[in-house]
């Protein structure tokens, strides 16, 4: 996708770093992450808040596959969130991680926590490829993220497991092999470690 021009600084900005900021009453502006954080800091009365841009990082998963992660930090409510995500066709996809700290926390310390969380998650594998498609491996545990399937008009969910997009039908086939078994389904915020 072509870059979007930030309504504040007029710099070209990738779609994944644009925030629609405003309200129905006053209208919305498309702001880059830096301008959004400056506006949010001003609105929250945060003196000396500094937006930090991190360079992409490459990491290897438990199967030896390399993943490149981009970072985005943004003021959310009264906290500072740092997101890590892969890009596919210009949009966030695959593995996604987040940590949330206080607005005055050192961004480098938060980044260190996030990278530790990413390493621990990437070391785990939950799927194995078989002739029948992806299946739950011998660990008998699945960890992932719920997403929406962009190819489905009915807003059917899709799950991301081991950084892979698994359609709802594929997921159903995977868990059907455990007919009669018990399971526990637990949902956690993206910033929590599972």
Q: Describe it for me?
A:
The protein is α+β, with helices and mostly antiparallel strands and 194 residues long. The chain has helices at residues 33-44, 107-123, 168-176, and strands at 4-5, 12-13, 18-23, 27-32, 57-60, 66-76, 79-88, 91-101, 127-130, 133-136, 144-148, 157-161, 164-167. It has a four-stranded antiparallel sheet with strand order 5-6-7-8, sandwiched between helices. Strands 11-12-13 form a three-stranded antiparallel sheet.
Secondary-structure blueprint:
Layout: E1 4-5, E2 12-13, E3 18-23, E4 27-32, H1 33-44, E5 57-60, E6 66-76, E7 79-88, E8 91-101, H2 107-123, E9 127-130, E10 133-136, E11 144-148, E12 157-161, E13 164-167, H3 168-176
Antiparallel strand pairs: 1-2, 3-4, 5-6, 6-7, 7-8, 9-10, 11-12, 12-13
Low-pLDDT segments, ≥5 res: none
Helix content: 10-25%
What is the arithmetic mean of pLDDT?
Answer: 92
Count of helical stretches: 3
Give the biggest sheet: 4 strands, antiparallel
Shape: globular
Strand content: 35-45%
Task: Trace the largest sheet across and list its strands.
Answer: 5-6-7-8
- Please state the structural category: alpha+beta
Q: What is the gyration radius calculated from CA atoms?
A: 19 Å
Q: Termini separation (Å)?
A: 33 Å
Q: Total strand count, please?
A: 13
* String of helices and strands: EEEEHEEEEHEEEEEH
């Amino acid at each position: 996708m072509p870059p979007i021009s930030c309504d504040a600084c007029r710099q070209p900005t990738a779609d994944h770093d644009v925030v629609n900021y405003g309200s129905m009453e006053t209208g919305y502006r498309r702001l880059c992450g830096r301008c959004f954080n400056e506006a949010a800091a001003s609105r929250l009365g945060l003196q000396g808040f500094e937006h930090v841009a991190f360079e992409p990082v490459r990491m290897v998963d438990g199967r030896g596959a390399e993943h490149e992660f981009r970072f985005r930090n943004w003021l959310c409510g009264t906290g500072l969130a740092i997101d890590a995500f892969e890009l596919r066709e210009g949009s966030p996809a695959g593995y996604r991680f987040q940590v949330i700290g206080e607005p005055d926390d050192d961004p480098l310390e938060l980044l260190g926590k996030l990278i530790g969380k990413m390493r621990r998650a990437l070391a785990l594998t939950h799927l194995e490829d078989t002739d029948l498609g992806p299946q739950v491996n011998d660990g008998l545990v699945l960890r992932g993220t719920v997403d929406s399937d962009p190819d489905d008009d009915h807003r059917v969910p899709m799950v991301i497991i081991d950084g892979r997009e698994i359609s709802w039908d594929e997921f159903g086939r995977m868990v059907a092999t455990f007919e009669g078994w018990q399971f526990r389904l637990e949902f956690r915020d993206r910033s929590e470690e599972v």
